[in-house]
Amino acid sequence: MFPEKSQGKVLQATVAAVGLGSKGKGGEMQPVSVKVGDKVLLPEYGSTEVVLDDKDSFLFRDGDILGKYVEWN
C-alpha cells in the first residue's frame, strides 16, 4: 500500500473508439480488450491528448487500461 499522497488518481471513462489491435512477437494480431461503450478505469497520466471536431479526447494504449466494469448476473 502507498500513502494517499503518493498515489495517482484513477479516472473513469467510456470508450469512444478502438483500434484494430497490436502485433504480437510472432506477428499475429492481438485483439483489443475493450469495445466501444465499455466503462474503464485509467491512470491519471500516460495518455495522449487529441482534439477532434473541437472535442478533447485522450488516447490510451490497451495495456495502460487498469480495468473495466462488467455486470455480474
Return Rg in Å.
15 Å
The succession of helices and strands, N to C, reads EEEEEEE
User: How much helical structure, as a percent, in the residues?
Assistant: under 10%
**Mean pLDDT level:** 85
What is the CATH homologous superfamily assignment of the domain at 8-18 and 29-68?
GroES chaperonin
**What is the end-to-end distance?**
31 Å
User: What class do helices, strands and sheet pairing give?
Assistant: mainly beta
Strand content: 35-45%
Counting DSSP E segments of at least 2 residues, the number of strands comes to 7
What CATH architecture of the domain at 8-18 and 29-68 would you give?
Answer: Roll
Shape: globular
Protein name: 10 kDa heat shock protein, mitochondrial-like
GO molecular function, one term: protein-folding chaperone binding
Pfam family, one: Cpn10
Family: Belongs to the GroES chaperonin family.
Q: In a few lines, what is going on in this structure?
A:
The protein has no helices and 7 strands. The protein is an all-beta fold and 73 residues long.
Can you walk me through this structure?
One of its GO terms (molecular function) is unfolded protein binding. This is 10 kDa heat shock protein, mitochondrial-like. Keywords: Chaperone. The chain is mostly beta strands. The chain has a domain of 51 residues: GroES chaperonin (10 Kd Chaperonin, Protein Cpn10, Chain O, Roll). Strand 5 and strand 6 form a beta hairpin. It is globular.
Notable features of this structure?
about 70 residues, 10 Kd Chaperonin, Protein Cpn10, Chain O, two-stranded antiparallel sheet, globular
